[in-house]
UniProtKB/TrEMBL annotation:
Membrane found in the keyword field: yes
SUPFAM superfamilies per record: E set domains (SSF81296), Sec63 N-terminal domain-like (SSF158702)
Swiss-Prot/TrEMBL GO biological process terms: spliceosome conformational change to release U4 (or U4atac) and U1 (or U11)
Domain of life the protein comes from: Eukaryota
Membrane topology designation: Multi-pass membrane protein
Keywords linked to the UniProt accession: Chaperone, Endoplasmic reticulum, Membrane, Signal, Transmembrane, Transmembrane helix
Protein name listed in UniProt: SEC63 domain-containing protein
Biological classification of the source: Eukaryota, Viridiplantae, Streptophyta, Embryophyta, Tracheophyta
UniProt cross-references to Gene3D superfamilies, sorted A to Z: 5' to 3' exonuclease, C-terminal subdomain, C2 domain
InterPro entries: C2_domain_sf, Ig_E-set, Sec63-dom
Length: 219
């Protein structure tokens, strides 16, 4: 679905298909609490977290950032259940992403723009990434990602690449600059195929010169 849609350049629909992949893998709807991906969690537990005094706990990252004593007070579960939750949180993707336009000084109207993306996972002492924690999925599944560059205003998908990430990776995406001199805004998406709540989105702007002069880049 993702690649059939992407071949037509439909941005919003492609992103929706990626989110469908997440929902199918986790056996959840997008409207459900992201905490329901956690083992032993029910809607009641998710509601308890969302109503936590002081700070709502709505994502896996919110739960990880809590102090141990606060987490234990919020989740009065057995030691075995808490251990299962800790294992899931350690497995949940925590990835730093940075990006830059390469050779941006010489890009003119109609030229190709090359975006280099650097991805680095916080491994937390793990040697490798294991299979996706998805008990509702009928078979073992390896984690995968999509990198996408899109023009939100025109709903156009400009570049897409499938990524398999262990510890660190550098990926290049190429797409055509506009045919005329213009300041153009783009959005970079990093979309997971297996988990809800770990996607990333960044906006950047490119000033394309009619004569092929310097391109000013701002993140």
């Amino acid at each position: 679905m993702v690649y059939v849609i992407s071949s037509n350049g439909w941005l919003s629909l492609a992103l929706l298909a990626m989110e469908v992949s997440q929902m199918v893998t986790q056996g959840m709807w997008e409207r459900d609490s992201m905490l329901l991906q956690l083992p032993h969690f029910t809607k009641e537990w998710a509601k308890r977290c969302q109503e936590n005094p002081g700070k709502k706990i709505e994502t896996v990252f919110d739960l990880v950032e809590m102090e141990d004593n606060e987490r234990c007070e919020l989740l009065p579960m057995t030691d075995s259940q808490l251990l299962d939750i800790a294992k899931f949180c350690n497995q949940f993707p925590n990835i730093d992403m940075s990006y830059e336009v390469l050779d941006g000084q010489n890009v003119g109207a109609g030229d190709d723009i090359t975006l280099q993306v650097t991805l680095e996972r916080d491994m937390e002492g793990k040697a490798e990434v294991g299979p996706v924690d998805a008990p509702r999925y009928p078979k073992a599944k390896e984690e995968g990602w999509w990198l996408v560059v899109g023009d939100v205003k025109s709903n156009q998908l400009l570049a897409i690449k499938r990524v398999s990430l262990q510890r660190k990776s550098k990926v290049k995406l190429e797409f055509a600059a506009p045919a005329e001199a213009v300041r153009k805004s783009y959005t970079l998406y990093f979309m997971c195929d297996s988990y809800l709540g770990c996607d990333q989105e960044y906006n950047f702007t490119v000033d394309v010169k009619e004569t092929g002069g310097p391109v000013e880049y701002s993140g």
